[in-house]
Write the structure tokens for this entry.
Amino acid sequence: MKALVIERPGASGVKVIAEAKPAPGWVIIRVMACGVCGTDLHIFQGEYLGGFPITPGHELAGVIEAVGPGVERFAVGDRVAVEPNIPCNNCEACLHNRQNFCENWKAIGVTLPGGMAELVASPENALFSIGKLPFEEGAFMEPLSCVIHGVERARVRIGDRVALFGAGPIGIMMLRLLLLQGVSDVTVVERNAHRLAIARASGAARCVAASEELRPDFYDVVADATGAPALEELAPSFARPGGTVLLFGVPPAGKSIRLEPFAFFRKGLTLLSSYTSLRNSYQAVSLIASGRLEVADLVTHRLPLERFAEGIEAIQAGAEVMKVMMLPNG
Ligand SMILES: [Zn+2]
Ligand SMILES: [Zn+2]
């Protein structure tokens, strides 16, 4: 089968490799859509967990091609999306229901071969049925599950005013989820005009190009979906007394920001982060399948495996790119 292989940071190519046979409790999936996300960029650049060579791709949906011994809930031909994080369910973190911090964590597309290949192996218990949902939409299950986890952690309340930094695919999904949650208005900060227009069309009450246009001490929740330290440093100043700051975007490792502890004390702020997801895949599929949260319109690029580098370049260039979908089977 064909698989995209990142041999070392910055060097990738399509290779013909042996097809995996399904192990007991595992299935083989023909990958029909696999989203490219910021994590793939970090992997490509050698800035993330896991070693090389690796086949990336952790946002995937497809059709079951083969099932291993003992697989009971799924059959050949089923349409599924994959929760890529595989916890051991036996370490202390897992036993405390914090599987996202599993000490024996494995992940499809990070430590295990991923979805940027014609076929990928997955444990049965990582599969979610997507029914008749288009594969591209199923491939949004994983990023949306992370967004759901973040919004749940922030305990967003009905009627809240929110400031949201960033209107990439994650920021737009967060905006749409916040509106479903019943917030009264969301102000989106985004310097990319194309993305800002999508935020406006998605129901943002105010769209601004720079954080200077936000009101200080005003928002119930200030959420960052950029991971830019300069913005994350400013976030607490816009939160109202008693408000919440959610650092959601993936920041670069090793960079620091300055915070004034007295401001946190005086305003009684809650500072939160959010790491991957915690059993939010079922919620994500339900939201997409019900039509309550649209994701299909976020796909701007559809590429065969051979054009992965082009997808990476498009994401880095920014301009009019939202979600890049790799289509390993055409
Ligand atoms: Zn991702
Ligand atoms: Zn564990």
In short: Residues 2-144+277-326 form a domain with the Quinone Oxidoreductase; Chain A, domain 1 fold (CATH 3.90.180.10). Residues 37, 39, 58-59, 142-143 surround zinc ion (ligand 1) (CB under 6 Å). The mean pLDDT is 96. The chain has two domains: 2-144+277-326, 155-273.
